[in-house]
Structure prediction request, 111 residues.
Amino acid sequence: MGPDDRSFLEQMATTLDASIRVLEAETRDLAAHIGEERVAELRAYFRRELEPIDLEELRNALDFDDRRLLSLWARLERNRARRVAAGRKTMALDAGREDIDVAAYDKSKKT
Prediction:
């Protein structure tokens, strides 16, 4: 990997960090607007902790703010995973180990 690749990884990490901060702020503001009880219900829905019948019932009752919060959580999850991947790749480069496949260490894909 050349210096352009390293520069790209660093820029990507910086951009992701900024994006994560913005998404976290939006999430906090929207969660405060929605209320603790509804946020707890949505969190259980997002994590698929509810029974299938309850998931369906909640899905049918989602309003715009609920959907927006779920979208923010999904974007945060993706951006955090990408940030971790960029960090791992950078660490592998710093160790002089370009042969390491950092995708093999992606815990978010394991069940």
In short: The chain has a mean pLDDT of 87.
